[in-house]
Every structure is written in structure tokens, then in C-alpha cells.
Write a structure and sequence with these properties.
Largest sheet: 7 strands, mixed
Number of strands: 11
Helix content: 25-40%
Shape: elongated
Strand order of the largest sheet: 1-7-6-5-2-3-4
Structural class: alpha+beta
CATH architecture of the largest domain: 2-Layer Sandwich
CATH topology of the largest domain: Endonuclease, Chain A
Number of helices: 10
Order of helices and strands: EHEHEHHEEEHEHHHHHEEEE
Distance between the termini: 74 Å
CATH class of the largest domain: Alpha Beta
CATH superfamily of the largest domain: Endonuclease Chain A
Strand content: 15-25%
Number of domains: 2
Length: 280
């Protein structure tokens, strides 16, 4: 089976084996394993190290350390020093990928005990040769352009962190070198409807019909144009636009005196009445 979805079954319980761990264990045994992930637990990571022939890890070490409390950070620090040749720091890495042998697992799950066993995650197990080879090339390109972690830089970064877990975005200064340039991509250009079109499409049909019925009470198209021109001039004079929450154009429930009154801050500022006069 070249491609398989990996996820917890709907009837999953504490007694079920995690399908993520099941796939990873089968993949990594006695293989040279490539791991890319910013959020890891040492407990689960060492499980992979124990099963594999070798492990190469790409991680955002600053993000990994910042996401843990002080005590766990020192354990991660010791790991990064002890396994320095197996780990490269890549700033802003957010991938969750394991590549081993002729298979690769790509998905949303972090390689932590909770991520593998206790979260609603989705993964894709790839076993097509060209896809696995492409992932290996991607990993090896990042590995070649990144570098190992310098112990002094690591210690300075740890000293800069608050005691409690934080996101790396809350830390003003980076201390670990990452030679890979940041990603600066753009959204693909597409044709989007205007805000007016979106509002019209989402507007309740009954309200739209009520508005049409009310406008039909206007004596003429010329009168309606004049009224709406006056409404626009009033908005400009008051310094409000059509998206200002203080501005409300209401449709009275009865077809009584007022047609489409305008209020700003709950005060009437403009109203056309059934006698076709305009009161400001």
C-alpha cells in the first residue's frame, strides 16, 4: 500500500495501541532514521534512538527549549550536548516528519508521548519510492545548510528564558545560529468578491426581501438616489464609514412613517418619511 492515512480510530481507548507509534516502530527498527520536528519529548525521542541504527534530527532548538519548563530544559540541554553530532538547529522549522528505509510519516503529530498517544492528529504514511526520495532530498538539503549547536550559545539562550514555558515569539533575541534564510513567500493571487458582494451573499433572504419591499415605497428612483446621496454626505460629515459599528440603517417593522432611518450611536440623524420629506 503506497499511501496510508494514520489516525486514531473513533472507538480508541486507553487499551488501544497508538497507530502513530505502531507505524513509527515498524519503520525505524534497525534503520538510519531522519527526524524533523520542533516539539519533542526526550522520552519518546530516546525510544526512536533505541530502535534505530542511527538518528539524524532537525529541530528548532530554541522553540523546543522555550516550550518546556526550566527542569525539562536542562535535560534537553544535556541531550543536545551529548548528541551534538546528531542534531542540527533550523530556525522556524515546523515540520513533523520521520523518514526511515523506504517509508516516511508526515503529519500533524509532534513526537511527544502526548502527541503520539493522546491527541486528535492526522498523518500520512508514504511508501512510494519517488515521494520518499523527495523527502530525503528535502531533509538532506536542510541538513547540509544547517549546523550543530554551539554549547556556549545554548547556555546563553537558556539563561535568557523565563522559568515557565513560552513561545519563541515571546523571546526578543535569538542566540542559536541558523544559516538557513527565513521563508518569505506570498499568497497566490485569486479573484475575491468585494465586501459588498460577500455581505449580500450572506444576508438573510427574508431581510433582503424586506429591504426591497421598503425601497419600493419610495416615490421614485430619483428620490431614492437623492436620499442615499444625502446619507453618504452625512456619513462623510460625521466621519463614519459603512463598517462603523455605531452606524445603523434600520428597516422599521411597520410601513408607518419612517422608511430607512439612520442612527449613529443610537441617535436618529436621518429619516425619510412616508410624506416623502427628509428630516435630518
Amino acid at each position: 500500500m503506497p499511501v496510508r492515512l494514520i489516525h486514531h480510530p473513533s472507538e480508541s481507548s486507553a487499551h488501544n495501541v497508538s497507530p502513530f507509534d505502531e507505524a513509527i516502530v515498524r519503520m525505524v527498527q534497525e534503520e538510519d532514521v531522519l527526524v524533523a520536528c520542533p516539539y519533542l519529548s526526550l522520552r519518546y525521542l530516546m525510544r526512536i534512538f533505541h530502535l534505530a541504527k542511527s538518528v539524524s534530527l532537525l529541530t528548532d532548538a530554541e522553540e523546543w527549549l522555550a516550550s518546556h519548563a526550566s527542569e525539562a530544559r536542562h535535560e534537553i540541554r544535556d541531550f543536545l550536548i551529548d548528541y551534538v553530532g546528531c542534531v542540527h538547529h533550523v530556525k522556524d522549522l515546523h515540520s513533523k516528519v520521520i523518514i526511515a528505509g523506504d517509508a516516511a510519516l508526515v503529519g500533524s503529530a509532534n513526537f511527544t508521548h502526548k502527541g503520539i498517544t493522546s491527541r486528535i492528529e492526522m498523518g500520512v504514511l508514504l511508501q512510494q519510492e519517488h515521494q520518499v526520495d523527495e523527502l530525503k532530498m528535502w531533509f538532506q538539503s536542510l541538513w547540509a545548510r544547517s549546523s550543530t549547536i554551539v554549547a556556549d550559545d545554548l547556555d546563553r539562550y537558556l539563561q535568557s528564558l523565563p522559568t515557565q514555558p513560552v513561545t519563541r515569539q515571546e523571546i526578543l533575541q535569538s542566540h542559536l545560529t541558523s544559516s538557513i534564510p527565513p521563508i518569505r513567500s506570498q499568497l497566490a493571487p485569486i479573484q475575491l468578491p468585494s465586501l459588498d458582494q460577500i455581505a449580500l451573499e450572506e444576508e438573510d433572504e427574508s431581510v433582503h426581501k424586506l429591504l426591497v419591499d421598503r425601497v419600493r415605497l419610495f416615490p421614485s428612483r430619483m428620490w431614492a438616489d437623492s436620499y442615499f446621496d444625502l446619507m453618504r454626505e452625512l456619513m462623510e460629515a460625521m466621519g463614519v464609514d459603512k463598517n462603523d459599528p455605531r452606524l445603523v440603517t434600520s428597516i422599521p417593522r411597520s410601513a408607518g412613517r419612517w422608511l430607512l432611518p439612520v442612527t449613529i450611536n443610537n441617535r436618529y440623524v436621518l429619516a425619510g418619511d412616508t410624506a416623502f420629506k427628509c428630516a435630518c
